[in-house]
Amino acid sequence: MNFSFITGLQKRGKTQLLVLPIWEGPKEAADLGVLKDAIRPALKDFKGTLGEVATCYVENERILLLGLGKQEKATVEALRKAYAGLVAAARLKQVDTMHLLFPQCKQKESFLRGMAEGVLLANYSFTYKGASEKTPPLLKSIYWIDAPKTQILQRMEVIAAGVHFARDLVNMNADDKVPIKLADIARKLHPKVQVVVFDKKRIEAEKMGLLLAVNRASVHEPAFIQATYRGDAQSQEHIVLVGKGVTYDTGGLSLKPTDGMVSMKCDMAGAATVLSAVRTAAELGLKVNVTAVVPATENCIGSNSYKLGDVYRSYSGKTVEITNTDAEGRLILADALSFAARTLKPTCLIDLATLTGACVVALGDEIAGLFSPDDALAQELSDAAEEVDEPICKMPFHVDYKEAMKSEIADLVNSFASRDAGAIKAALFLHEFVGDIPWAHLDIAGPAYPSKPKHYYPVKGTGFGLRLLISFLEGRSA
Ligand code: BES
Ligand code: ZN
Ligand code: ZN
Questions:
Q1: Residue in 261, 355, 451 to alter for ligand 1 test, most ligand atoms within 8 A of Cβ
Q2: Using an 8 Å Cβ cutoff, are 80 and 117 in contact?
Q3: What secondary structure does DSSP assign to 230-278, as a single string?
């Protein structure tokens, strides 16, 4: 999408749609200049409540009044939602060019950020539909009238492109992102990003026994992807982001029922988000050193499946008795986290994973779970999330529940006898593999792939977590 600027309502040519934002309250406050008389009738019963819309025509030009709610109550997130709704409505009307009058307000930069973000995040589509059924077209050009000219818009465009990139990876067919194909996508991430991929032979040589176990029944070999952007050569700081890369999760021998499996091409959303974060950091030129680490495999069922009751040795040396092959995410993350901790000298380690259904039960599909024994890192991530309105919730890191991980024949079991506190116990399992490095785990099983579209989130993949990671990296940026 292309953003341009115009000064003054008078100077512009006609467009497919002119949008006039209206605050709730006395209409005299709205500065609509020459248009005021023409739209006065339409304004009569327009209250200006948040998200309210009305259309009218002035000299054959379609004009849309957009309610923004009470000015003193306006938030960036409310504007994001209002402008996302506007884009959805415009696209349905086959509009591809709009003029957007910037509203009178004090918080010019942050409000512009909210509006632009709402517009950009809603201007997304991914479809395998044939040509017979039309999906609403994307907007091509936006002309901002009387908006502050800032760097914000370019930055928002880069970040939105990062969100779209993550969404695309999640939405594409599982067959198109099997580990080797995902690795090829990673190799082309960005010219400033160095990528190292371990193939099956190297993964065997490294003795990543858990990743190899999960991979066994798949006809597609695993890949272990590392993508590094060094934006600050002077600094020793190295942020390592680990993303669960199960490109399809059948559950294995602990086979998922049909209803639970339909969405499982989303099980690499963590991988999509961390790869996109490194790409976006490079594109923004952030002064940080950051590596995305992705253990990638399918979790299939077959005569070569890894088996319940058998014990496998992890990269760390700890042995794991398999009590549920559907708890595969923690297994491949265990190998990735201990590999990262041991060889990449991380100053902080953050993993993102569609890890447990239990987290969705606890928090629903709009909130991610945050698990960490490190209060400072948890606070930093919570602040980053709040900054961009991606809701996350700190969950208790209750180490006494580790009791349930005991195995009679191995160091740990991968799934616990009872189902309670499933998301916390999964996090505690991961903790066994990170050592002393500041670490946090985000369980994004809910918000990565919700069942319904909402506001600026389209159907299926949302790209959740990308904006929060960028906000976190910017905070760490020198
Ligand atoms: N990929 C799933 C978790 C998931 C569920 C992601 C719903 C997205 C939406 C994960 O591998 C899984 O199956 N976890 C099990 C763990 C259990 C066997 C301990 C679960 O949550 O049921
Ligand atoms: Zn699973
Ligand atoms: Zn899974």
A1: 355
A2: yes
A3: ES-TT----EEEEE-EEEEE--TTSPPPHHHHTTGGGGGHHHHHHHHHH
**List of domains in the chain:** 2-147 (3.40.220.10), 157-477 (3.40.630.10)
**Catalytic member of 330, 425, 467, 476:** 330
Ligand 3 midpoint to CA 300 (Å): 11
Q: Which residue has the tokens 């928090």?
A: 363
The per-residue pLDDT for range 40-65, each reduced to its tens digit, is 888 888 999 999 999 999 888 999 99
**Residue 258 burial (CB < 10 Å; 0-12/13-18/19+)?**
exposed
Grouping H, G, I as helix, E, B as strand and the rest as coil, residue 102 is coil
Q: Where does 123-171 have alpha helices with state H?
A: 152-171
Query: Considering only CA atoms, which residue is closest to atom 8 of ligand 1?
Result: 445
pLDDT tens, position by position, 358-387: 999 999 999 999 999 999 999 999 999 999
Residues with CB under 6 A from ligand 1: 249, 267, 324, 326-329, 354-358, 360, 415, 422, 445
Round the CA-based radius of gyration of the chain to a whole number and report it: 24
